Structures are given as structure tokens and as C-alpha cells.
Amino acid sequence: MAMYVYKDSRRTIEFLAEDALKQDMVIRYYCPNPNCNAHMYLCGVDGLSTAHFSANRQAFPHIEKCDYGTSNGFKPDNSDENSFDFEMALENMLNPTKATKKDKLPNTHKTGESNLKPLRTIRQIYDMCIAHSCTQTYNNKVIGKMLLDDRSEYMYPKGVFGYRIIKSKPKTGGFYNTNEKEIHLVAPSSEKYEFF
Ligand SMILES: [Zn+2]
Fold first, then answer.
1. Ligand 1 midpoint to CA 67 (Å)
2. How far does the centroid of ligand 1 lie from the alpha carbon of residue 37, in Å?
3. Does the structure show a pLDDT above 60 at 128?
4. Measured in angstroms, how far is the CA atom of residue 143 from the centroid of ligand 1?
């Protein structure tokens, strides 16, 4: 599923789930993946679930391994957006013992509140970021400020500072520096930044 789509095949006019209305349900939209010809339709504007887009016509599914197909596990109603804290989630990943203690804190006994948990793994957060446009927000945090990829590159004119999930690849011809015992990664596709 996706939280945004494009209105045109050239992918110039972005359309966000939060701006969608019931009458938009009959319109075919374009998958954010330019290589994928899936026919995307608006779902969930009935109030039962969060509005999102899905390739729900069997004849026009996502291509294999499309970021917006079944390989993306993000479902807006399966996690607690309001208690998501990006910095804390990443800190907990870096300090697993601390995170374990935190997980044991009871947070389900408040009456009337759901048992949903916030996203906490890299995969969960990555899938959530991919499902959104980089200008959308998740619990008031801009997606592009959590994930550096080709879409959000323009948000990083001077460098990458603070916690970020980075869609990177091994540096060609220099992935591992045996002297320094370092791996070298580059991101995004433009290879503007190198990390080691
Ligand atoms: Zn697709």
C-alpha cells in the first residue's frame, strides 16, 4: 500500500492520501514506482481505516518486488503513530538493553486505548517512510528527515547530520578498507555522500 500516488503517468502530480475525498475512489492513480504500471485506487476513506492507496484490481498488480506492493509491510492501522518517536526508536536500536526494559513498561492498561505499539525496527520504519512521500509527516516528523533516499536528497544540501535511515549501497571498488577496517557506503543514487 501507499500513502501517496501520482495523478499522471509521468509522475509529476503527487496526490496524498490525507487530501483524498470519497469521490476520488473511482479514479485510477499511478504507483510511485515509475517502473510499475499498477493501477492504484483510494481505500479507507469510509472512516473504518486510514485512507491509503492500494493496487486492488487483480488485473493490474504491482510488479514483483515493487516498494509499494506486498514487500512493503507498512499498514497505517497496525501501529500507534501517536507514540512514535524516531530519535527514541533509533536510540533503542543502538542500546538494546535499554530498549528491552522500556518494552516491559505496561502501556496497555489505560482504558479505551488500543494495544497498538509504535514502529520500532529499521524495517518497519523504512517501510513506513517508503510508503509516504518524503514531504508527508508521520507523527509530525517529516519523512525526508528520517530517510535519506533519492526522493529526499534535496533536503540534504550540506551533509547528513543526526539520526537518519540511509538508503545506501556499497562503494564501487572501495567497499572495504582493510587498513582502517571500515566499510564504505554511498548514498543516494547520485552518490553525493559517502559513509564509513
Ligand atoms: Zn508498484
1. 6
2. 7
3. yes
4. 19
194 has a pLDDT exceeding 70: yes
Residue the block writes with cell 556499497: 170
Cα 60 to averaged position of ligand 1 atoms, centre (Å): 10
> Model-level pTM?
0.88
Q: Is 137 exposed, middle or buried (0-12, 13-18, 19+ CB in 10 A)?
A: middle
Under 8 Å between Cβ of 193 and 187: yes
At 137 the three-state DSSP class reads strand
- Pull the grid cell for residue 112: 479505551
- Whole-angstrom distance, CA of residue 42 vs CA of residue 56: 9
Specify the residue for cell string 507498512: 74
DSSP 8-class letter at 2? B
The CA 2 to ligand 1 mean position distance, Å, reads 9
